[in-house]
Fold this protein.
Amino acid sequence: MADPKPLPFQPGSLQGISEKAMLIHHDKLYAGYVKKTGEIGEKLIELRKSGNYEGNATYSELRALKSEETFATNGVYLHEWYFDVLGGDGATEKAPELTKALIEKWGSLVDGIKYFSACGMAARGWSVLCWDIKDQCLRHYNADAHNQGGIWGCVPIITLDCYEHAYFLDYGSDKKAYIEDFWKNLDWTKVEEFYLKASQFKL
């Protein structure tokens, strides 16, 4: 696993989300997942080379490492997708193709954002708009943990961190206000780029 990626925006430039909260989120939490992903990878290599491993489905060192490998790695990837779409001005006109697809999917852009926001309120971990490369359409999924709720074959387009650590320092328990500010900070140029790349991929 590579080193933590830097934030693609100035941490004090967001509406509502403070520099302190963002630096804790990025420099401590996200960086911790990057570190643990590397450590787990090293332990798996050592275990495999030793030949002293057991594939027991009730409990074994191999099972534990493989389970936490997905938790830590998804913790890295989901945070990177979340950070990547922040730092914008919320201008939806910068994503003409994605907004067109959202309108086709949910009837209007307002309804699409309303539904995503409601899903975010319902999520304990992550709320993700993604492109299904199997069915070739937009999907929306929630995940209560990094390695739960996601669907293989779906590529994230807009990723919202719904864990309390993402908003509690600035918003307390007002998760709704945090999600409202998320849309104000969304970089629609970036999500358009993600959408165009993902929607071109076919199996």
